[in-house]
Amino acid sequence: MNRTLPRWADIILIPLLNLALAILVAGLVVLFIGEDPLRAMTLIIQGAFTPNGIGFTLYYTTNFIFTGLAVAVAFHARLFNIGGEGQAAMAGVGVALVCLAFDWPHWSLALLAAMAGGMLFGAGWAAIPAYLQAKRGSHIVITTIMFNLIAASIINFLLVGPMQAPGSSPETRSFPDGASLPTLHDMLGVIGVNFDRHAPVNISLFVALIACVLVWLLIWKSRIGYEIRAFGHSDKAAVYAGISPLKITMIAMLISGALAGLMAINTVMGEAERLVLDAVQGAGFVGIAVALMGRNHPLGVVLAAFLFGILYQGGSELAFEMPGISREMIVVIQGLVILFTGSLENLVRIPVSKLFLRFRKGDA
Amino acid sequence: MSVVENTEAGRSNSAAPTPPAIQLKGISKSFGPVKANKDISMTVAKGTIHGIVGENGAGKSTLMSILYGFYKADAGEVFIHGQKVNITDSHAAIAAGIGMVHQHFMLVEPFTVLENVVMGAEEGRLLKPSLAKARATLQQLAEEFELDVDPDAIVGELSVGFQQRVEILKALYRQADILILDEPTGVLTPAEADHLFRILRNLKAQGKTIILITHKLREIMEATDSVSVMRRGEMTETIPTNTTSPADLAEKMVGRRVLLEVVKTPATPGDVVLEVKGLNVVDSQGVKKLKDVGFTLRAGEILGIAGVAGNGQSELLEVLGGFRAASSGEIRINGAPIDLSAKANAGMRRARGIGHIPEDRHRRGMVMPFMAWENIALGYHNKPEYLGKAGLHNQTAMREDARGKIERFDIRPPNENLIASNFSGGNQQKIVVAREIEANPDVLLVGQPTRGVDIGAIEFIHQQIVNLRDAGKAILLVSVELDEIQSLSDRILVMFDGVIQGERLPEDTDERELGLMMAGAGNNPANGGNP
User: Fold this and answer.
1) Residue B262 has pLDDT above 90, yes or no
2) Residue A103: which H helix or E strand, with range?
3) Does residue B499 surpass a pLDDT of 70?
4) Distance CA B331, CA B276 (A)
5) What is the pTM of this model?
């Protein structure tokens, strides 16, 4: 574990190079299907930053921050939580139950209660795989993937059954007005800034940013974070230090599930204002790429989440403007980013490390 | 650096201008900014045993890896029997007649001896003719060199000493003329080590050339004709063994005078602090690891547990340290029993006054990617001085505390923010030792305190352990280094196969007797027969 790279290169430079490679290969794919990659790139950027587009970009960013943090926290305990999708989906049920329970007098109360509901359901859905991992050694990658499918089935059942609004498509009835979260348009309006009123970005964005600070405190400043990191680096050393693997596995996964669950306040409460089918829309999986690219650091997660927000929003515009390219192109780029930042990390890291060494030798 | 004219080649051909078996000229190798080998030249005469000594990281292994083709040298030339060779990989090394016996054996355990020997040197599509040929060759080698091993034995069922012979046979079967042995006695009992040296002398008598890498200076004195000293990537000296002494070699390795003997006064034992009775441990495979182990440990004494690795010492430390459950038995600290069930954990042991310097500092004693200050808190990370508000750590206090320990234990470089893996082995161990000793335990468990630690740090760590004893603490020392047990302990227990074979006082016993007990043959001290 000799650190040959300065920290900034590790957190910023390498991910950017990986991204550049991913975009380059994606560009080749675009070229291959007979479209102009430069025009595609321009459309993505433009689409993400139009006055209307930026509101969507930030809305997606909020989702990805939550799911990215979820993956990052679990990863510090060397647990690969693939279940963000299912945890966020179940959290939607929790948020919907809370929002539909009362005629909420004010959105702030509703928000706090819905956060609690979402975190509870998200954490609860992560708890079972965590327990199976800690007690029975059932691999958490496998169990969390299976729990994603189970969650989807449960929600299907709920939305065509007990929770379905009478006479409507498979969705709950709309939440009461008191549970309606202020959008960025509402909030910036107070200080006289005119933000697009149709954009779904809402106060959840700030909840996500606060969550980043809290996760940073948790991982690097708190006692439990110390134990999580010790366990993640070496379970034997953790046991020697009197740290319980069961306790750390449970805590890390509960926090992870709760973070994934918070995503539901953005989508279910902030945007749809009712629970619909497939409210998560793959954000749980994007979280894996975000955490990988952000090197499991909250700051890196914010940057990577914003990047994927751009890709998602820009990608929708791209699909609209260039019918030859479908929205799946973005999934291709996402997959390439995972490939380059995860599996092929050393492809970039080793040459860059060598370059740095050469420079340093030059200094000496 | 210097080229030695070997005075002790001994064989009739030494007078004739026989080219040296190995000649290295100006070998250099860097790993990034680290110069592992700097302009190394060395000559080894045919038919001699040549020792290479040096501290960890001095570059011995790198040099041998270059010779065996694992690494490519940045500069320099290799001559074997006067022929310039270009050793690009281990195949080329074997073709040049070089065989290597690794510290960690490269054997397929479920295979037979014969299959292991043939592996990689099979001829033809069918195995049978190769095996038949190998059987005949093994027979011949066994007679020639006292290397008898049952060719049909399963390697995994052989003792370590025999497994090592299989490694040597593998090299000889490939017609190795030059044999490199890397720390060959680390896992052997003294009797097995003696047998190994007899084999090496036989090989030498047959004209084979042997390079022996070891950190045990006694073995260098005993077995080699000439010795090279390496320090910080350079070969500082090559001298005939009969012109030097262990103290002299140690000084040459470290670059300053070192005390090989531990300075200590007789112990003044106090009350019984630790009492172990009828302790049994069964592992997950149902194998009995500890059988009715019992002993007492008093305040102000060092109790050494001698034994070859894997005879239950690790399990004993793990039970005492709180991360392995016992199946039966009783352990008392200051008269009160401790929990031996699976519910116990290491934190509970610390609360009862047990400190623990674990055997494996890389995986247990430290978290390698953690910084020094984080490692200095490991296991004590919930103590009141370290706690801040709202579940946070008071990292200022933790860093402050680490700086104090780094200064008092002379940990270098004195930087609490350095990642553990960037410290040398000796300084890593000092971090662990500082943490455990300053926690002021009633009982300190010490496992292999100087494994992978350089000589200068060994001296320091031994002194700290003795000082702790003199402060009235009870110390349980487990080590596979018999020298270490003999020089540090006030009483010695010997373990073999999970059983305590007996107790001796260091002044009333010797290595021979302890060695026999370590091999399970020492129950009756009157029995002096060598196995």
Assistant:
1) no
2) none
3) yes
4) 5
5) 0.83
Q: Which helix (H) or strand (E) holds B33?
A: none
Q: Is-contact B204 B11, C-beta < 8 A? A: no
Could you identify the residue written with the tokens 């080229």?
Answer: B3
Beta bridge partners of B79: B23, B84
Q: Is there a contact between B363 and A241 if contact means CB atoms under 8 Å apart?
A: no
Q: Contact B204/B144 with Cβ under 8 angstroms?
A: no
Note whether A229 contacts B422, CB cutoff 8 Å: no
Burial bucket for residue B256 (CB in 10 Å: 0-12, 13-18, 19+): exposed
Chain B residue whose CA is closest to A214: B392
- The two tokens of residue B490 are 């006030």
Radius of gyration of chain B, Cα coordinates, nearest whole angstrom = 25
Give the chain A residue nearest B379 (alpha carbons): A241
Cβ within 8 Å of residue B355, ≥6 positions away: B436, B437, B439, B441, B443, B444, B445
Minimal Cα distance from B395: which residue of A?
A: A221
Question: Which tokens is A275 given?
Answer: 């629970």
| Chain B residues with at least one Cβ partner in A under 8 Å | 32-33, 321-323, 345-350, 356, 358, 360, 363-370, 374, 377-379, 381-382, 387, 391-393, 395, 419, 421-422
Model confidence pLDDT, tens digit, residues A60-84: 999 999 999 999 999 999 999 999 9
- Is B237:B228 a contact under the CB 8 Å cutoff? yes
Helix then strand then coil, in percent of chain A rounded to 5, is 75, 0, 25
- Separation between Cα atoms, residue B58 and residue B214, nearest integer Å: 12
- Are the CB atoms for B297 and B273 separated by under 8 Å? yes
Predicted pLDDT at A4: 60
Chain B partners of A230 at a C-beta cutoff of 8 Å?
367, 370, 378
Question: Which residues pair with residue B354 across a beta bridge?
Answer: B443
A236: nearest CA partner in chain B: B364
Contact by Cβ (8 Å): A346, A75: no
Question: Whole-angstrom Cα distance, residue A282 to residue A267?
Answer: 12
CA distance B378 to B366: 7
As a whole number of angstroms, the distance between CA A181 and CA A115 comes to 12
Residues in chain A with CB shorter than 8 Å from the CB of B391 are 222-224
Q: Considering only alpha carbons, which residue of chain A is nearest residue B365? A: A237
Using the Cα atoms of residue A296, residue A299, residue A302 and residue A308 in order, give the sign of their dihedral: negative
Does the CB of A360 have a partner CB in chain B at under 8 Å?
A: yes
Provide the 3-class DSSP secondary structure of residue B54: strand
Query: Contact, B435 vs B380, CB < 8 A?
Result: yes
pLDDT tens, residue by residue, B319-358: 999 999 999 999 999 999 999 998 899 999 999 999 999 9
Interface contact A223-B347, CB threshold 8 A:
no
* Cα–Cα dist B366/B402, whole Å: 14
| pLDDT tens profile A88-97 | 999 999 999 9
Place of tokens 């020792």: B51
Widest CA span of chain A, in angstroms? 77
Per CB-CB distance under 8 Å, the chain B contacts of A361 are 33
The answer to whether A357 contacts B33, with C-beta atoms less than 8 Å apart, is yes
Q: Give chain A's radius of gyration (CA, Å).
A: 21
pLDDT at A80: 95
The Cα of A89 is separated from the nearest Cα of chain B by a number of Å equal to: 31
> Nearest-5° angle of CA B300, CA B304, CA B305?
145
Q: What is the DSSP string of B308-323?
A: -TTSSHHHHHHHHHTS
Strand partners, B332: B275, B337
CB contact (8 A) between residue A223 and residue B345: no
- Cβ–Cβ of B419/A230 closer than 8 Å? no
Q: In what order do the strands lie in the sheet with B288-298?
A: B288-298, B272-282, B328-333, B336-337
- Provide the pLDDT for residue A362: 53
State how far the Cα of A219 lies from the Cα of A225, in Å rounded to an integer: 4
Q: Is B111:B157 a contact under the CB 8 Å cutoff? A: no
